Amino acid sequence: MYRVRYPGRVTEQRSGEEGDRRPAPAETPATAPAMRASDADRDRVAEILREALAEGRLDAEEHAERIDAVYRARTRAELEPLVRDLPVGQPFGTPPPAPAGATPSGATRNVVAVLGGAERRGRWRVSGRVNVVAFLGGVELDLTQAFFDQRVVTLNVTAVLGGVEIKVPGNVTVRGSGTGILGGFSMGGHESSDPNAPVLVIQGLALLGGVEVKRVSGEQVHDLRAPDRD
């Protein structure tokens, strides 16, 4: 209750009645939570960084620092600054529609070694895409006893001051190419006599490091429809 003075009289008026024009307190908008990053988001950013290194837009130290940050990132907001200064700096836009008749490439698996070692061997299921990163470390990827979900599997390999060794069954088709900068990228193409055998497409970069692909004779790829025994 407050008093209003008019010439010659004083009246009392309650708050909320006509004449009380004080503004209501503004509501504070809720802050939307940060979008969590998926493995596919990290893969897209890692691929942009790999191309930037090959084109000379990033040096080896910058590339290594950003790759390390990519696989530590938990949200998209942490990934976006890593490619903001590169030509393809918006990796999270709406992807173009897939062409008619295209089949999904399957899930993505990452094998990363930073200042250490990583390996994948024995009976494990190979997805449609595998990203391998070795920075000041080593990775051993053994596919000789693996089960293949997809007939065509893409391996993206990056070795910076580190090494990657890939063992493949003798009856698998191996295609692709890699770039060695002050390092080596050794792989020999092979066409399997079995028209239904899986196809490994290996691509990547070795900078002051090495990538070696070895065919293991006597080892045969497991049936694509074999149950997962990992």
Task: Describe it.
The protein has 230 residues and is mainly β. The protein has 2 domains: 35-91, no CATH class; 107-230, no CATH class. The chain contains 3 helices and 14 strands. The protein has helices at 39-54, 60-70, 76-79; strands at residues 2-6, 9-13, 108-114, 117-120, 125-126, 129-135, 138-142, 147-148, 152-160, 163-169, 173-181, 184-186, 199-207, 210-216. The strands form 4 sheets. The protein has a 5-stranded parallel β-sheet, covered by helices on one side. Helix 1 packs antiparallel against helix 2. The longest helix has 16 residues, at 39-54. The protein is globular, with a radius of gyration of 28 Å. The chain starts with a strand and ends in a 14-residue tail after the last strand. Mean pLDDT is 75; it is low at 94-105 and 224-230. Residues 25-37 have a biased composition (Low complexity). It comes from Streptomyces alkaliphilus. Residues 1-41, 86-106 are annotated as: Disordered. This is DUF1707 domain-containing protein.
Give a brief rundown of this model.
The protein is mainly beta. Helix content is 13%, strand content 35%. The protein has two domains: 57 residues, no CATH class; 124 residues, no CATH class.
Give the SSE map:
Elements: E1 2-6, E2 9-13, H1 39-54, H2 60-70, H3 76-79, E3 108-114, E4 117-120, E5 125-126, E6 129-135, E7 138-142, E8 147-148, E9 152-160, E10 163-169, E11 173-181, E12 184-186, E13 199-207, E14 210-216
Parallel strand pairs: 3-6, 4-7, 5-8, 6-9, 7-10, 9-13, 10-14, 11-13, 12-14
Antiparallel strand pairs: 1-2
The whole-angstrom Rg is: 28 Å
Helix content: 10-25%
Task: Identify the overall geometry.
Answer: globular
- Terminal Cα span: 76 Å
- The tally of domains stands at 2
Strand order of the largest sheet: 3-6-9-13-11
Q: How would you characterize the largest beta sheet? A: 5 strands, parallel
- Count, helices: 3
Strand content: 35-45%
Number of beta strands: 14
Unreliable residue stretches: 94-105, 224-230
Mean pLDDT: 75
**Element pattern in H and E:** EEHHHEEEEEEEEEEEE
SSE-based structural type: mainly beta
Domain DUF1707: 35-87
Biased composition (Low complexity): 25-37
Biased composition (Basic and acidic residues): 11-24
InterPro entries: DUF1707_SHOCT-like (IPR012551), LiaF-like_C (IPR024425)
